[in-house]
Write a structure and sequence with these properties.
Layout (H helix, E strand, L loop, with lengths): L13 E5 L24 H12 L5 E5 L7 H11 L3 E5 L5 H14 L4 E5 L1 H5 L1 H6 L5 E3 L4 H12 L10 E5 L2 E3 L38 E3 L2 E2 L16 E2 L2 H13 L4 E4 L8 H14 L4 E6 L6 H9 L2 E9 L3 H5 L7 H13 L3 E8 L6 H14 L3 E6 L7 H9 L6 H7 L17 H16 L2 H10 L3 H20 L8 H4 L1
Parallel strand pairs: 1-2, 1-3, 3-4, 4-5, 8-11, 11-12, 12-13, 13-14, 14-15
Antiparallel strand pairs: 5-6, 6-7, 9-10
């Protein structure tokens, strides 16, 4: 393993990269990994690159290996051609293997390059991630100030100072920081990402008729604690309404007409949300945007203003139709609040995307049927049925291990011994096994999507050739999956109704 660099970096060429999706963790449903649904810009590395540039490091570039559909070897070839002194990678759990493999190959190709790891997966298993990889450093938490200070030390040949969240190697030994998590309390000092760092015209979504779209983050953190979500900070750090309005205007000036706001809950501060909407209206910014929201934050006044400001799609995490299971999700919502919130959003003219999960602890087939029935009652424009994946660092993964439903910490083992095309060995198979979970997921998808009324409605709403191509392809893949994965060992779907 390569130790911490102590010599000055001769130049200041820095590359921040999103690793390949090649040979990533495999979904139960192959369309999840299909590029037909579009690509989202890697906001994390773009924000970090912009922050470095704003603080004096002019030669900073970004590489999105997923957008370019590169293999780990091709990613290394591309990086080597850029001749970087410092390379940073972000690693999500699904992409841990290609990130690890790329780092290994890059070390062989550029032995003197300083390599830094970051991202959610590394935050759960920092010691294992750094020890088993060829990286020099690893950052846990908000990376702006940590990365800036680290790069400054490297460039100027100073001993690397201990910082919150900064792990490092010294003489083959992993050194933990005194404080485990890096946080940035004031995100108003972080400039919006420079979207020209990457080819922003190539990012798109099957959900919008626009040729391309972008994403945005206006706040970090979440005050809630859903059992299936990893959240290090249960508090919200937000940019000002004026900053958000400015960023919307910058996006519109680039010719981008569609934005997905990736805040966990955009309306956590209703007054702020309304100020943002009013500012967009007052400036005459013509842009379509979507938000993630909680049903108990919805009010008629707010949603009328959101619609007027160009927000036309809302993503709601409904999760379950069983009141008993809902109480155990950590969402602190009621069924009545969900119904009321979605009804208000519909009345305001919003397109509704609602997410439903199967695979909670103690969830029975009866609970799953209630979820499907509840989805029918809500009748969202885009219902999404998924099987809960117990990701590392989530409460449900910890609970599953404690109860023996998940027999061992397989994510830790995967971190230490990454393998290509990894198939998740254990779900939360409590009252329902994997086959039944797949069956219920397929049933929900069939019953809500493959109805003549819905198909006709969707076809009528298509407005462009690219949208037609994307949605038809996605629909065919969805149909193929929900019928191909039907288990022969289970009763036919109609017997489960």
């Amino acid at each position: 393993m390569t130790d911490t660099a102590t010599n000055p970096v001769k130049s200041r060429k820095i590359v921040l990269a999103q690793p390949s999706s090649d040979q990533c963790v495999q979904s139960l449903f192959t369309y999840h990994n299909d590029h037909a649904i579009g690509h989202k810009p890697p906001l994390g590395i773009m924000i970090l690159a912009t922050y470095l540039q704003a603080n004096g490091f002019s030669d900073v570039q970004c590489l999105d290996a997923q957008l370019e559909e590169l293999s780990p070897q091709q990613t290394v070839d591309r990086l080597a051609a850029m001749e970087p002194d410092i390379v940073g990678f972000t690693a999500w759990t699904d992409f841990w293997y290609p990130a690890w493999e790329t780092v290994k190959l890059l070390r062989q190709r550029l032995p003197h390059c300083t390599i830094i790891l970051g991202g959610p997966h590394c935050g759960v298993y920092p010691e294992e991630s750094l020890k088993c990889s060829e990286a020099n450093f690893l950052v846990v938490g908000d990376g702006e100030d940590v990365l800036l200070n680290l790069v400054s030390d490297l460039v100027h040949g100073r001993p690397v100072a201990d910082q919150p969240g900064l792990w490092r190697k010294e003489k083959g030994r992993v050194i933990a920081p005194l404080e485990p998590l890096a946080t940035i309390d004031d995100i108003t000092k972080v400039p919006p990402p420079d979207r020209t760092l990457l080819p922003y015209q190539r990012y798109s979504s099957v959900l919008t008729p626009a040729d391309y779209e972008t994403t945005m983050i206006t706040s970090r953190g979440c005050p809630y604690k859903c059992v299936f979500c990893k959240m290090d900070v249960q508090k919200v750090y937000a940019r000002t309404a004026a900053q958000v309005i400015d960023e919307f205007e910058q996006i519109a000036n680039l010719g981008i007409t569609d934005v997905q706001v990736y805040d966990d809950t955009f309306t956590w501060g209703i007054a702020r949300a309304m100020d943002i909407c009013q500012g967009i209206i007052d400036r005459g910014i013509k842009i379509n945007w979507a938000i993630r929201d909680r049903a108990n934050r919805v009010t008629p006044e707010l949603y009328r203003l959101l619609k007027q400001a160009g927000c036309n799609r809302v993503h709601f995490g409904v999760e379950t139709g069983s009141p008993r299971i809902l109480k155990g999700t950590g969402k602190f919502l009621t069924m009545e609040q969900v119904e009321t919130g979605i009804a208000i959003a519909k009345e305001a003219g919003m397109t509704i995307m609602a997410y439903f999960m199967f695979g909670f602890l103690d969830e029975t087939v009866a609970d799953a049927r209630m979820t499907i029935d509840f989805a029918k009652k809500l009748d969202p424009d885009y219902p999404v049925f998924v099987i809960l994946i117990p990701y590392p660092g989530t409460e449900i993964y910890t609970q599953g291990l404690e109860r023996g439903v998940i027999p061992h910490d397989f994510w830790r083992e995967f971190t230490k011994n990454p393998s290509p095309d990894y198939h998740i060995p254990h779900l939360v198979e409590d009252q329902m096994d994997r086959e039944m979970l797949v069956q219920m997921r397929n049933m929900g998808t069939r019953q809500l999507y493959f109805q003549p009324r819905r198909i006709i409605r969707e076809l009528r709403n298509l407005t462009s050739l690219s949208e037609i191509h994307g949605k038809v392809k996605l629909g065919l893949m969805l149909a193929t999956e929900v019928y191909r994965t039907r288990s022969k060992s289970l009763p036919a779907p109609q017997t489960l109704l």
